[in-house]
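Good morning,

Both structures are done.
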Amino acid sequence: MPVGIFRVCLVVITAIINHPLLFPKENGTVPENTEEIIQKMKEREESLRLEQLRLEREIADQEARQKTLEKAAEVVEESKEENVRWDMWTALSMVIFLLIELWRQDFQEANWQDTGGEEDDMAVLGKAFKGVAFPDKAVLASFHEKRILGTTGDMARMREMVEGFADDLLEALRSVCNRDADMEVEDCVGVGSMYENWRVRKPFVCDLIVPFAPPEPYCFRPQTWCSGDPFPPDEQGYGTIKVCRADEDVTGCICDKTKLGEDMLCLLHSQANTTRPSSEMEDLLCFKNTQCLDTNQVMKWFQIAVTKAWNKISHKYEFDLSFSLLDSPGALKIKFRSGKSIAFNLTPVVQYENSDVYFISHFPRSSLSEDLPSSAHWFLTFAVYERRFIQLVSKTLPVNACHVSCLQILSFLHGKQCSLTGPSGLTNYHLKTVMLHLLQACPSQNWGPEKLEARLQDMLKFLEKCLHEKKLYHFFIGNGKVPAELGFPIIFQRAEPLNLFRLFVLHRDVYRKTVDTFHEMLRNTSALINEYTVHIPLAHTNGIRKESL
């Protein structure tokens, strides 16, 4: 009973305590807290969902980048393999190209150096000779003796007279020049046909070249197409000359680095600076604000200097001196009171390093030939080496060898034909180049005087072949067979052969005119020679024909 009563009381007390009306304030906030908790849980769930989406995107981006890197690595590997294959083919192609080029050069050199030495090759040529009556050796010998030797006997006296006067004139030129500011002029050198003894056309003209150099401390630094300097193909065979101080780099001028002083002249910028009062030169010969020596400026300076020198010594001579050609710096003419005259060329040149190759400002050439690219470009002349080569080879030839006779006859025929039909692209220099090639190719014994007719025909056939191919290579440039005794610069021997007939490739009208003139000359050969030949009895001619060549 007491236990039951206790249980009933405990239940009643518990019910009373848990009744909501007993604690209204405490239990009234339960629903509000629950809503806030639910709201926060929703917000947390949303943020977790957004974070999950962000992480998924980052994982997807990383996977995409990984795939991209893997693809790039595959592409690089493939490109490396392709490059290796391409490099292999490139190297193989270059090797094949070099082998072909070496073979071409060897074949080319063998052809153009040895063409004149093969009688069979010569027989294949000469298509233009068909139907042409060529004079025999008796007529040719008579023509050469009566027409050429008979009119060239006074060349030695003329050379001696001109050289003596030129030396006196240059000595006077040195005396009127300012040694501290003007160009230094050296002794003249005789070159060309008058000094190689094959000049035939009158008036006889002596060609003298005069080397000159700048005053100290300046120097000339030549540049050529075969010395590694950049030159376009149409400027091969030419060169430029830079004026600079001996201790300065050629790429800059020292006038803006050093105070020159009031009495000093900048060679490169003379137009912008005041010239020294004691100097006789207003301009030191450079081309349009550059360091390159200008051929036109050199021409003006040299003409002025020669005029002053002549004014100083004219009282010693009983003749007058004048310039015969306005476009040539040293084309001079001596006029005697008797009315006779002597012409000679005194041309300024610049020496190439320590050789006898010279840069020449103006060069005798055909009226149809190419002009210089600009007045900053200079011709190169190998005339001194050409004269030495002829002298060297002449020592190995038979007595009274016919090489000079052949060149004289060919030059005479060409000159007469040009006087009838007008100038052509051929010059006497081309004719001499043909002779030089044949001198090197033909055995020495084949140049005896009795071989005059055969060798002259060889020269004409060789020239015909060159005209047909539009190729006549310079004798020295690219010729590895030049005798070592000449001391010829190796840089020109190793250069690519220079085609003297390049003009014919570029100008078809000039080529056609030249070929027509050559063929007309062949047709007129007998008539021209017979016109200037003393009559030879027919029986004597037939007897000579039976002799073997």
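Second structure follows.
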Amino acid sequence: MRVFPWGFWLLCVASAPARGDSGSKARSCAEVRQLYGAKGFSLSGVPQAEISGEHLRICPQGYTCCTSEMEENFANKSRSEFEAMMKEAGRSVQATLTAQHRSFDSYFQDLLNKSEKALYDAFPSMYGELYTQNMKVFKDLYSELRRYYRSSNINLEEALNEFWTRLLERLFKLMNPQYHITDEYLDCMVKHAEQHKPFGEVPRDLKVKATRAFIAARSYAQGFLVGSDVVKKVSQVSLSHECTRAIMKLMYCPHCRGMSSVRPCNNYCLNVVKGCLANQADLNTEWKYLMDSLMVVADRIDGPYNVDTVIGTIHMRIAEAISNLQENKDSITAKVFQGCGNPKISTKGSSSEDKKRRGKVTLEAKSSAQALEMLVLDAKGNLTALKTYWITLPSSLCSKKVMASSASDDKCWNGMTKGSYLPEVMGDGLANQINNPEVEVDITKPDMTIRQQIMQLKIMTNRLGNANIGNDVDFQDTSDDMSGSGSGDSCPDDVCGKRLSKSPSTRQPETHAIPKQSGRGVNGASSRSLPSASLLLLLSVAVIAPQHLWR
């Protein structure tokens, strides 16, 4: 006979938390009504006081201020707001990387522009017709240099060789106007040019140094753009259905329960966000490699490759080469005649180029090394700060956007009521979410958009690794097979220099394995290689097909 009263008492105790501290009196829904209206929803049908919550599908089914329609609207709102948080955080990173690219790009373009202007200003008075009749040769050189820097599919070594060949042909004819020099004769002269070294050591030396500087500069600039593009595309990835429910429960269910002033528990928030951003966290490893690689190449640009000196003095090296040709004109002409025979005397008469040559002008290079040093220091500081972006994003969102409580708070929203949160915090990445208590995550179905961006990070890191050791890579197609034969960690300057100074008449830009990635930067290339484009396509089909079958 006492079972019924005791059972009835237990039911009363069990239902007590749903009504809060107000006892049997239903609590007012004024705060929820105010919030709901502020979010842009109509207050029609919104309860004035708590109602029974058996209809709820996401929030706990105790007494509630939310109808089914309100729960659905709050769920959609939480989804859009969380995605907006992601995009806002991403835009901040994008802005940082884009600003770094803009600063370096402006600096580098300015170096080229100043060198070209110095050439145009000084060469007419220095060389007379030697310059005025060959202006296009010089303009074409700077155009090719800019095209290469902007990632056009041209071979820089070939472009430099072509410049010296064209310049030699035209200067040889101008210095020997008394002869009728045919195109066939010029071809013969060019064949002997490497042996006679009419420009001295300038072409070889400039080719080695300029190639290294340009490879490093364009890879460095491209690295910032790739990083920014990856963040943009990843930030646009939509939330899953399971994540939307978890975010709704985190952000709006406390309002439905009449606990608008109770903040979410910090560890509860972390588990929700880590589950929602599990795929994004998998970017962490390759993202850190990219940041490290950019910092290593930055040191190269401001150090051994000496971009400021090499690029800023191109006009001076050309002037030095022309002076070498003029000073050794007679001996070089004699050697050419010996190898190719004496050309016919011209019937048009002769006029000496020396008569048209003006007095010598001293060329000076204005150093901007300090500006480059400041650029590199600023870039390295920002890159260091961004290295852990993907794994610190959940903590950042919880503390700054969701406004979660402190970790020690035992009177926070834990997903069910006001209290402490007991489950442990999950690790980072997809594989660590298998036991996530807040978000159902299928670790067998990685997000394909994010996997593609991971591959883009690998490809860019590979390019920077090659730039670090002075090797060129093709920038045209990021899906190209990047699994070339790796170059070891040790590539002394004299060895790399010899490799780059070989005739590039048939040489195409090289590709190499991904640089050794130890978290400390890129010191060379390792045996790790990227899959080919066809293999990537097959893998994508293999992953996507089962997903459609499971659905």
